[in-house]
Amino acid sequence: xxxxxxxxxxxxxxLGERIRKLRNKRGWTQVIMAEKIGMDRSFIADVERGKRNIxxxxxxxxxDGFGITLSQLxxxx
Length: 77
Known about the structure:
Number of helices: 5
């Protein structure tokens, strides 16, 4: 049986949770993370809450900032 396809909102929420966990694992606040990767803190907050449809470019920047591959960032979403 095929795995049910998540709706868009689920993907954004799951991605946001993953980003928050990665950030917290490194001991970064949203402000520190924003400074490290060159994004606005409010943008990061919106992404973490699943309120933003984040572009591929920003996903690459996030993965690079965490020192992981894009594949690792998106795996299992």
